[in-house]
Amino acid sequence: MAVVLLLGTMVVILLATGSFLREIANAVTSSGAEVSYEDLQQLFALLLGAIIALELAHSVHLMVMGSKGYEQVRIVLMIGILAVVRKLIVMEMDQVSGILIFGLAAAVLALGGAFALLLWVDRTTALKEKT
Question: How far apart are the C-alpha atoms of 41 and 91, rounded to whole Å?
Answer without folding.
Answer: 9
